[in-house]
Design brief:
Helix content: 40-55%
CATH architecture of the largest domain: Alpha-Beta Complex
Shape: globular
Distance between the termini: 52 Å
CATH topology of the largest domain: 2-enoyl-CoA Hydratase, Chain A, domain 1
Structural class: alpha/beta
Number of domains: 2
Largest sheet: 8 strands, mixed
Length: about 325
């Protein structure tokens, strides 16, 4: 059973009608003739709704529990994945999945946030919020990729770094800062794809890249809309307004030059057709990898640095 959001209510009503007609069609086949008309209406209505989504509605889509996560893309896109565990310092953080794999014949290092499926699984994965050992595991994988000259692919999907006291005690800020420093200097190609929610330094710690890409209904922001509303207005009712002000959608970020590309999603979002979005993600990654591999490593690092330096620049 697919889960639908509040703004999709008109679509749900038609889908329920289609289900009723399918049941009636078992005894009265002529009722089945109405289904193609309603299915066409669903597509038209979805196009109309999704053409004018607010930033807050996009945020809801980015957080949809059925949205494909890193583990799903590993299964659909990559071959011969070998998961590598632990940071060799403290432990293994399940909110970060990492390992070697192949994509269209290329050997790559894959690193991504994992929120998990279902309540127990999400708890085990800390709801996709890494502890310091998660970022240090990611760092170990990046250094391994550098040693063996393997491109790095990262999937971003986190509300942010884990905010608990124990994470701070083990050096959360230092772990994130070190990742930023190291990623900025790696000579291998780095591609980051925001597949869902990209929150604060927790997202940035694995997304200092040569090419930053986002799914159409993903978000990428310095803070969540809820957190922004709490800090600026101390009012949860301002969450939608905060989402608008943060410019966190893929279209806004492309205009601002924060990202290099948007990967279009199927009608209704990635969770409605995981196979289709996986094919699009795979095609885009391979295309970007081919472009990056044609650039000499020294020049690639210079371009990455220049890309980072121009973020936030403005002229009066």
């Amino acid at each position: 059973m697919k889960e639908y959001l509040d703004f999709e209510a008109p679509v749900v009503k038609i889908l329920e009608k289609i289900d009723q007609l399918k049941d009636l069609g078992k005894t009265n086949p002529r009722r089945m003739e109405e289904i193609p008309i309603l299915q066409k209406k669903v597509k038209e209505l979805q196009s109309e709704i999704y053409a004018k989504l607010s930033p807050w509605q996009v945020t809801q889509l980015a957080r949809h529990p059925g949205r494909p996560g890193t583990s799903d893309y590993l299964e659909m896109i990559f071959e011969d994945f070998i998961e590598l565990h632990g940071d060799r310092l403290y432990g293994d953080d399940k909110s970060i999945i990492s390992g070697m794999a192949r994509i269209e014949g290329r050997s790559v290092m894959v690193i991504g946030h994992e929120k998990g499926k279902g309540v127990k699984d999400r708890i085990a994965h800390h709801f996709g919020m890494p502890h310091p050992e998660g970022y240090r595991k990611a760092l170990r994988m990046m250094q391994l990729a550098e040693k063996f000259n393997k491109p790095i692919i990262t999937f971003v999907d986190t509300p942010g770094a884990y905010p608990g006291v124990e994470a701070e005690e083990r050096g959360q800020s230092e772990a994130i800062a070190r990742n930023l420093m190291v990623m900025s200097q790696l000579s291998v190609p780095i591609i980051s794809v925001v597949i869902g929610e990209g929150g604060s330094g927790g997202a940035l710690a694995i997304s200092v890249a040569d090419r930053m890409l986002m799914l159409e209904y993903a978000i990428y922001s310095v803070i969540s809309p809820e957190g922004c509303a709490a800090i600026l207005w101390d009012d949860p009712a301002k969450t939608s307004e905060a989402a608008e002000s943060l410019r966190l959608t893929s279209k806004n970020l492309l205009k601002l030059g924060i990202i290099e590309g948007i990967i279009s999603e199927p009608s209704g979002g990635a969770h409605h057709n995981p196979i289709e979005i996986a094919e699009s993600v795979s095609l885009t990654i391979c295309k970007q990898l081919s472009a990056l591999e044609s650039i000499p490593p020294e020049e690639r690092v210079k371009q990455r640095y220049a890309r980072l330096r121009k973020i936030g620049a403005f002229t009066e």
